[in-house]
Protein backbone atom coordinates (compact mmCIF):
# COMPACT_ATOMS: atom_id res chain seq x y z
CA UNK A 1 0.00 0.00 0.00
CA UNK A 2 2.87 2.35 0.76
CA UNK A 3 4.41 1.73 -2.65
CA UNK A 4 1.12 2.61 -4.36
CA UNK A 5 0.81 5.92 -2.45
CA UNK A 6 4.45 6.74 -3.18
CA UNK A 7 4.03 6.09 -6.92
CA UNK A 8 0.85 8.25 -7.08
CA UNK A 9 2.59 11.12 -5.29
CA UNK A 10 5.56 10.84 -7.66
CA UNK A 11 3.27 10.97 -10.72
CA UNK A 12 1.48 14.05 -9.39
CA UNK A 13 4.75 15.87 -8.74
CA UNK A 14 6.16 15.03 -12.19
CA UNK A 15 2.95 16.10 -13.96
CA UNK A 16 3.03 19.48 -12.18
CA UNK A 17 6.67 19.98 -13.08
CA UNK A 18 6.05 18.96 -16.71
CA UNK A 19 3.14 21.35 -17.13
CA UNK A 20 5.28 24.23 -15.85
CA UNK A 21 8.16 23.23 -18.14
CA UNK A 22 5.99 22.98 -21.24
CA UNK A 23 4.10 26.22 -20.63
CA UNK A 24 4.51 28.64 -23.51
CA UNK A 25 7.43 30.94 -23.12
CA UNK A 26 7.58 34.23 -25.04
CA UNK A 27 8.78 33.62 -28.58
CA UNK A 28 12.07 35.15 -29.59
CA UNK A 29 13.06 35.90 -33.14
CA UNK A 30 15.67 33.76 -34.81
CA UNK A 31 19.04 35.52 -35.14
CA UNK A 32 18.82 35.71 -38.94
CA UNK A 33 15.22 37.04 -39.03
CA UNK A 34 13.78 40.42 -38.13
CA UNK A 35 11.60 40.57 -35.02
CA UNK A 36 7.88 40.33 -35.65
CA UNK A 37 5.94 43.58 -35.92
CA UNK A 38 4.15 44.74 -32.83
CA UNK A 39 0.57 43.59 -32.47
CA UNK A 40 -2.00 46.21 -33.50
CA UNK A 41 -3.48 48.23 -30.69
CA UNK A 42 -6.80 46.89 -29.49
CA UNK A 43 -9.82 49.08 -30.07
CA UNK A 44 -11.83 50.46 -27.23
CA UNK A 45 -15.06 48.55 -26.62
CA UNK A 46 -18.06 49.96 -28.44
CA UNK A 47 -20.28 52.25 -26.42
CA UNK A 48 -23.44 50.51 -25.25
CA UNK A 49 -26.48 51.39 -27.30
CA UNK A 50 -29.01 53.62 -25.64
CA UNK A 51 -32.51 52.29 -25.11
CA UNK A 52 -35.36 54.35 -26.55
CA UNK A 53 -38.97 53.60 -25.73
CA UNK A 54 -40.77 52.36 -28.88
CA UNK A 55 -43.25 54.71 -30.56
CA UNK A 56 -46.89 53.75 -30.08
CA UNK A 57 -49.21 55.10 -32.77
CA UNK A 58 -47.96 57.38 -35.54
CA UNK A 59 -44.19 57.57 -36.13
CA UNK A 60 -42.45 60.14 -38.37
CA UNK A 61 -39.75 59.43 -40.95
CA UNK A 62 -38.05 61.29 -43.79
CA UNK A 63 -37.14 59.55 -47.04
CA UNK A 64 -34.80 60.26 -49.93
CA UNK A 65 -35.80 58.21 -52.97
CA UNK A 66 -33.02 57.03 -55.23
CA UNK A 67 -33.27 56.40 -58.92
CA UNK A 68 -34.62 53.01 -60.04
CA UNK A 69 -32.30 51.08 -62.37
CA UNK A 70 -32.82 47.91 -64.39
CA UNK A 71 -30.09 45.41 -63.47
CA UNK A 72 -30.45 42.14 -65.34
CA UNK A 73 -34.00 40.92 -64.78
CA UNK A 74 -34.58 43.17 -61.76
CA UNK A 75 -35.42 46.75 -60.95
CA UNK A 76 -33.16 47.95 -58.13
CA UNK A 77 -34.27 50.97 -56.07
CA UNK A 78 -32.43 52.48 -53.09
CA UNK A 79 -34.22 54.54 -50.44
CA UNK A 80 -32.59 56.31 -47.47
CA UNK A 81 -34.78 56.60 -44.38
CA UNK A 82 -34.27 58.73 -41.26
CA UNK A 83 -36.25 58.31 -38.02
CA UNK A 84 -37.65 61.71 -36.96
CA UNK A 85 -39.67 60.38 -33.99
CA UNK A 86 -38.69 60.80 -30.35
CA UNK A 87 -38.69 57.02 -29.80
CA UNK A 88 -37.52 53.94 -31.65
CA UNK A 89 -39.60 52.39 -34.42
CA UNK A 90 -40.15 48.67 -33.82
CA UNK A 91 -40.23 46.29 -36.79
CA UNK A 92 -40.23 48.83 -39.62
CA UNK A 93 -41.67 47.41 -42.85
CA UNK A 94 -41.23 49.06 -46.26
CA UNK A 95 -43.15 47.89 -49.34
CA UNK A 96 -42.55 48.86 -52.96
CA UNK A 97 -45.29 48.32 -55.55
CA UNK A 98 -44.81 48.64 -59.33
CA UNK A 99 -47.79 49.40 -61.53
CA UNK A 100 -48.62 48.86 -65.21
CA UNK A 101 -51.48 51.28 -65.71
CA UNK A 102 -53.76 50.83 -62.67
CA UNK A 103 -52.79 47.24 -61.95
CA UNK A 104 -50.10 46.13 -59.45
CA UNK A 105 -47.62 44.00 -61.36
CA UNK A 106 -44.62 43.41 -59.08
CA UNK A 107 -42.94 44.63 -55.90
CA UNK A 108 -40.66 43.91 -52.96
CA UNK A 109 -40.77 44.11 -49.15
CA UNK A 110 -38.05 45.08 -46.64
CA UNK A 111 -38.27 44.41 -42.89
CA UNK A 112 -35.91 46.12 -40.43
CA UNK A 113 -35.74 43.66 -37.53
CA UNK A 114 -33.76 45.87 -35.11
CA UNK A 115 -35.18 48.90 -33.31
CA UNK A 116 -34.86 51.95 -35.59
CA UNK A 117 -33.60 54.60 -33.13
CA UNK A 118 -34.27 58.37 -33.33
CA UNK A 119 -31.97 60.20 -35.73
CA UNK A 120 -30.68 56.93 -37.21
CA UNK A 121 -30.41 56.65 -41.00
CA UNK A 122 -30.79 53.35 -42.84
CA UNK A 123 -30.48 52.50 -46.52
CA UNK A 124 -33.08 50.14 -47.96
CA UNK A 125 -32.58 48.40 -51.30
CA UNK A 126 -35.55 46.92 -53.17
CA UNK A 127 -35.07 44.18 -55.80
CA UNK A 128 -38.28 43.78 -57.81
CA UNK A 129 -38.60 41.44 -60.80
CA UNK A 130 -38.75 43.34 -64.09
CA UNK A 131 -41.96 43.12 -66.11
CA UNK A 132 -42.52 44.94 -69.42
CA UNK A 133 -44.87 47.92 -69.34
CA UNK A 134 -44.10 49.21 -65.82
CA UNK A 135 -45.20 52.83 -65.46
CA UNK A 136 -44.75 53.94 -61.84
CA UNK A 137 -43.92 52.79 -58.32
CA UNK A 138 -45.44 53.46 -54.92
CA UNK A 139 -44.06 52.98 -51.40
CA UNK A 140 -45.87 52.07 -48.20
CA UNK A 141 -44.39 52.13 -44.68
CA UNK A 142 -45.66 50.61 -41.43
CA UNK A 143 -44.40 49.44 -38.05
CA UNK A 144 -45.46 47.07 -35.28
CA UNK A 145 -47.26 49.69 -33.17
CA UNK A 146 -49.10 51.80 -35.74
CA UNK A 147 -48.78 53.92 -38.86
CA UNK A 148 -45.96 56.03 -40.23
CA UNK A 149 -46.07 59.65 -41.37
CA UNK A 150 -43.72 59.93 -44.37
CA UNK A 151 -42.10 63.12 -45.62
CA UNK A 152 -40.09 62.99 -48.85
CA UNK A 153 -37.05 65.30 -48.79
CA UNK A 154 -34.01 66.00 -50.97
CA UNK A 155 -31.65 66.28 -47.98
CA UNK A 156 -32.03 65.19 -44.35
CA UNK A 157 -32.44 67.91 -41.71
Notes on the protein architecture:
There is one protein chain. By secondary structure, this protein is mainly beta. It has a domain at 59-152: Immunoglobulin-like. Helices cover 13% and strands 40% of the residues. It contains one helix and eight strands. Strands 1, 2, 3, 4, 5, 6, 7 and 8 form an eight-stranded mixed beta sheet that branches. A hairpin with a 2-residue loop joins strand 4 and strand 5. The longest helix is centred in the first third of the chain and has 20 residues, at 2-21. The chain starts with a helix and ends in a 5-residue tail after the last strand.
CATH topology assignment of the domain at 59-152: Immunoglobulin-like
Q: Given the helix and strand composition, which structural class is it?
A: mainly beta
Q: Biggest sheet, open or closed, and with what strands and sense?
A: 8 strands, mixed
Rg of Cα set: 31 Å
Number of strands: 8
Structure, briefly:
Helices cover 13% and strands 40% of the residues.
Keywords:
157 residues; mainly beta; Immunoglobulin-like; 8-stranded mixed sheet; 8 strands; 13% helix; elongated
